[in-house]
Amino acid sequence: MPIRCEIVSQDRSVYSGNADMVLLPGTEGEMGILPNHAPLLTTLQFGVIEVRYQGREEYFTVAGGIAEVQPDIVTVLADAAENVEEIDISRAEAARKSAEELLAKGPPADTDAYLKIEAALRKSNLRLDAVKRFRRVTTKHGRISEETK
Amino acid sequence: MSSAREMRLRIRSVKNISQVTRALEAVSASKVRKSMAAVSATRAYATKAWQVLTHISQQPGRSNLHPLLTRRLHVERTLVVAVSGDRGLAGAYNTNVIRYTAQKFNNYATPVRYIAVGRKGRDMLIRRRKEVIAEFSNLPAAPSFADVSAIGRMAVDEFLKGAVDEVYLVYTDFITMARQETVVKKLLPLEMDSGAERVETYEQKHLAAAYIYEPAEAEILDEIIPRFTALQVYQAILESLASEHAARMVAMRNATDNAISLVASLQLDYNKARQQAITNDLLDIAGGAEALTRALAQNYRIGGENG
User: Which residue does chain B place closest to A7, by CA atoms?
Assistant: First the structure.
């Protein structure tokens, strides 16, 4: 029996479907959730969620948040989440570049501002890494289904 | 009756007004679409968040779980977050929020303090000599969670400090384009009843089993409960924004319709006046001609007698 998996970010629903196993980047470490898991509440760190179902995998970047596990459902409340296939590489590159430039100018006096830049940098790094590691090969005409890691 | 010139001016100015209101209506119509999209986009998250909160609240020993979930024995001070708009010309939208707030909290059992979101609401509260401890106005047209999370954080801080023992949220629920309803919602301490109907079916399937918390329980609750509170405020603001635009749209449409019927009746009066004037002129001419012929005839007769 599969377990349901729902991933929502603050502005939309990112994924909703069945899974045989869900891998979550918990703050205390990676965890794999199988159907009939005991109820669990955990915070998430920056990382990648992997959803396995019938021999196929889907990958999602997540920039922190919370996951709630019930025996038949995993709910991820992400601060920001994206399907790896949907990440806009050029935007992520641009974000990384501008964040790096801001940091290179020397740390801003304001701690809040510093944290903001740092978070932006971490987020774009996470996206770019995830694309490199998990995205299926794409051609101009669309996606080739084999995975290349 | 005013002169024809005055009436022409009046008609022209009413026509101009109707053009302006029509433009405002169109602007609001596009804004209401956008803000409705924003509301439904965050609804997924908010619903899930409620479900998780419901589960937390059903945990054994709920009252001691987290200070924000704990009901205080003696409620001595109350905080009300009133969400209104920054701008007028939205029919009764802003007035309704404040009137409803006054109705609920004017003769309240405890002293009430206010946080005003939106300039119009702030002005009205201050005019009514309410204690406004903070105001948040000039929100962006499409606020992000980060833009408004400060409001929720402030409410949480006041509550945790013990400055207030209850926090209510007054906002306008967007039901349809033509119908918006002002509602009051208890924000703190968090109560699950208000969201109960949304998660009822879900609850029955998942009877409260104690959670495994990772990291520690206190840490995780500290993280998520204030955030969920802020999220509720965010949702309320998005709903209110959609309502404000809808209210403005309807008000402007009514204004346009009224202007058009006013122009029609003014035009009718003007035409009547114009026709009257023509008739009068014709009568004058006819009368003049008549007099002239009569005078000529008399002259001729006199001349005839002389000649």
Answer: B45
φ/ψ of A26, rounded to 5, equals: -70, 160
Give tens-digit pLDDT for A25-45. Answer: 998 889 999 999 988 889 998
Report percent pLDDT > 90 for chain B: 46
Q: Which residues of A touch B56 (CB under 8 A)?
A: 41
Query: How far does CA A99 lie from the centroid of its chain?
Result: 20
- Residues of B near A (Cβ–Cβ under 8 Å) read 38, 41-42, 44-45, 48-49, 51-52, 55-56, 145, 205-206, 209-215, 219-220, 223-224, 231
Residue A149 confidence (pLDDT) above 60: no
Would the CB atoms of A66 and B45 count as touching at under 8 Å?
A: no
Specify the pLDDT at position B194: 46
From chain A, pick out residues whose CB is under 8 angstroms from the CB of B45.
8-11, 13, 77
Confidence band, pLDDT 50/70/90 cuts, at residue B268:
very high
CA distance B140 to chain A (A): 16
CB B254 within 8 A of CB B189: no
Q: Which ipTM was obtained for this model? A: 0.73
Of B205, B223, B231, the CB nearest to A43: B223
Higher pLDDT, B120 or B205: B120
Provide the pLDDT confidence category of residue B192 given band limits of 50, 70 and 90. Answer: low
Domain ranges of chain B: 4-17+257-306, 29-250
Are B75 and B165 contacting, i.e. CB atoms less than 8 angstroms apart?
A: yes
* CB–CB contacts below 8 A, A to B: 70
Domain residue ranges in chain A: 3-84, 88-143
Could you say which of B44, B224, B231 has the minimum Cβ distance to residue A13? B44
What are the b/e assignments for B245-265, b being 16+ CB within 10 Å?
bbbbbbbbbebbeebeebbee
pTM of the model: 0.75
Distance CA A70, CA A73 (A): 5
- C-alpha span between B142 and B241 (Å, rounded): 9
Q: Which CATH class is domain A3-84?
A: mainly beta
Q: How far is B131 from chain A (nearest CA, A)?
A: 30
B29-250: in CATH 3.40.1380.10 = yes
Instruction: Spell out which chain A residues touch chain B, with contact meaning CB-CB distance below 8 angstroms.
Output: 6, 8-13, 26-28, 31, 38-43, 66, 68, 70-72, 75, 77
Band of the pLDDT at B1, cuts 50, 70, 90? Answer: low
* Rounded Cα–Cα distance for residues B42 and A10 (Å): 6
